[in-house]
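Batch manifest, entry 17 of 40.
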Amino acid sequence: QVQLVESGGGLVQAGGSLRLSCAAPGSIRSINFRGWYRQAPGKQRELVAIVGSAGSTNYADSVKGRFTISRDNAKNTMYLQMNSLKPEDTAAYYCNAGITVWGRRDEYDYWGQGTQVAVSS
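Output type: structure tokens
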């Protein structure tokens, strides 16, 4: 079954770094990675970073200059490099992609299971 699997979350002190990964290990026809979102307890899910089809990127103001989104389509993997982490970055992080499976023409929306990032002061 097709799924997006996230990894790389954990505990880190303020100023530290983490790299999140989002992979589609199943057999798929194509994947369009879209970006990363996060959701802190009691808050709405918010967009963190997006990557366009041509490789353009955009970031939330709160993470600009600290986070970097990238993708490796050959490995069906998307990354979020997080540097200079702050306590306010604490949240569950989710990756998002559109996937077309073999035998279908439609692209469906998929979300990772979420990976927890906790930044202590």
